[in-house]
């Protein structure tokens, strides 16, 4: 059976602590791929190595020696004893292996469910394996199918659509307030890593302009240059409120930078255009009471954290839908494997029948010399339809889906019945 | 005819259910279905209007049933027409229940054909009544948008990020919706009042005689005029505009029903 030959063996964040995983990471896949491919009975292989997982996808007879060989390759130079390696590694075979790869590709097996990097990493791993000529028909189909499954899950579920980091949460909230971020202006008050990250995300979402205000003006100028924006002094903050739409504050000040009475008169000048304030400083920069003003929305770091929590549970729900898609696609792939097994037999039967037909036709036609072209044509049609009608039912029987062991018996019986294998081995009967 | 009307109502109910299911489940396929049913119901309802015209012999806008039915129809088309310009996420889940509610009211009011007194037989009847009811359709949309705005704003202000947060569109989109609905609804309302006064002149000899319906429509008009004025000059928007749209629509509904049933007057249905 083909399905039995598919196996996934490896370590990931669920089975193995990071202290062990980090000793396994392969930066250059070429050498390890060569080693894997040289293990006898490994016919096809692919190696996926990321910071959360090192996994080998292989096609071949899954004997104990193959498993041990792969394990040894993975843990070479890691200083982990053989006994421990068995404890740390997982093995999936057949349906489970298919299911596993599809889940990995769709980011259902990731530490952060729904993250996008894993698909790129898997694509790179597959590219490396094909470049080293380690893949064949089955693995090509298998891994490529996992890409399309991942794509289907991205489009049919919302697994990756909600923000699960602070800076993305800021973008999401901005979109809930402004809808479109085009032509909106961002004011960074103070410069911190998180504020910069949020600003970067906002820029990729189309934000028009970035203004930086900082205690040390020089730092403001440097940061502003990075975003193609302008720098202002911290004392100009309140006048800038009139222009800016999104304000991200992250100063190290111990006192409040902006109070309710500072913002209130500005709103009138802004003609009540909404103002979105993000306070990621601890201790806080912005007076919490600012949030009470109409058309002003203030969020602190805990609020952003709440958004993330909500989104995470949202993703969990979507993950359920995604698991159903994985199951469905796994089933489809298993079916493809089955048909892949049956196909050579069908082809062989057709070839044999056609060979007999053409041989017998040639013999007959050589004896019947004075036939018109029309009559020759009629005889040809006659033979073809005889063959087709005769083969129709057996082939249909072969293509029928049934239980796995029954199918094997069927295949075996059919091959014997049509003498396919004896012929392939050089017709021993006639030779004697 | 009555059966036909019930069929249309059933279609609206189906559309409402589909919109609400989509609102909860967020399945795009269901939204497509909901939209399809809504369009079909709108077309059937329009056909009903024509059928009623031939049955009654004059523009079917005189009985309470006819007026409310036309109100529902104009709300439906106002809603569907918005899809040409831009999409407001999940708006259907708020509009379709309103349409259905109106259809129920129309269903339970008498379907009998009312004979028009000769004084009211005029070309102004269809013009005045249809414009006034179409204005109500757009004002109802502003009302629905206002409710959505308040719900979404509450989520954002209270930082709850719950059920409505993920499902409702952005505040800006809802505010723009409010703006557009008023920009169409208010001129229609104005036109409705003007054509009404022309009709009054023709029927009763004076343009305006302070009957309760006229007074209340003037109050409604002043209310919306104030909102639009403030919007353009001081920039009243968001929460205030949403609340004003909700209150304003209540005034419009009072003009339509409250006046008729509580205050009476010559306008009394006949609308």
Describe this structure in words.
The complex is a heterodimer of chains A (432) and B (271). Chain A folds into three domains: 3-161, Glutamyl-tRNA reductase, N-terminal domain (Beta Polymerase, domain 2); 166-304, NAD(P)-binding Rossmann-like Domain (Rossmann fold, 3-Layer(aba) Sandwich); 337-431, no CATH class. Helix content of chain A is 57%, strand content 13%. Chain A contains 17 helices and ten strands. In chain A, helix 5 packs across helix 13 (301-367), helix 6 (117-131) runs antiparallel to helix 7 (137-156) and helix 7 (137-156) packs across helix 13 (301-367). The relative contact order of chain B is 0.11. Chain B folds into two domains: 1-115; 118-271, no CATH class. Chain B starts with a helix and ends in an 8-residue tail after the last helix. Chain B contains nine helices and no strands. Chain B has 271 residues and is mostly helical. In chain B, helix 7 (171-204) runs parallel beside helix 9 (238-263) and helix 8 (212-233) runs antiparallel to helix 9. In chain B, 79% of the residues lie in helices and 0% in strands. The A-B interface holds A 158, 173, 175-180, 268, 270-274, 291, 294-295, 297, 299, 303, 306-307, 310, 314 and B 26, 152, 156-157, 159, 161-162, 165-166, 169-173, 176, 234-240.
How would you concisely characterize the structure shown here?
The complex is a heterodimer of chains A (432) and B (271). By secondary structure, chain A is of the alpha/beta class. Chain A has 17 helices and 10 strands.
Topology:
The complex is a heterodimer of chains A (432) and B (271).
Chain A: E1 6-12, H1 18-24, H2 30-38, E2 42-49, E3 53-60, H3 64-75, H4 82-88, E4 90-93, H5 94-105, H6 117-131, H7 137-156, H8 166-178, E5 185-189, H9 193-204, E6 209-214, H10 217-226, E7 230-233, H11 237-240, E8 246-249, H12 260-269, E9 275-279, E10 296-300, H13 301-367, H14 373-399, H15 404-417, H16 420-424, H17 428-431
Parallel strand pairs in A: 5-6, 5-8, 6-7, 8-9, 9-10
Antiparallel strand pairs in A: 1-3, 1-4, 2-3
Helix pairs in contact in A: 5-7, 5-13, 6-7, 7-13, 8-9, 13-14
Chain B: H1 2-25, H2 28-56, H3 64-85, H4 92-108, H5 124-158, H6 163-167, H7 171-204, H8 212-233, H9 238-263
Helix pairs in contact in B: 1-2, 1-4, 2-3, 3-4, 3-5, 5-7, 5-9, 7-8, 7-9, 8-9
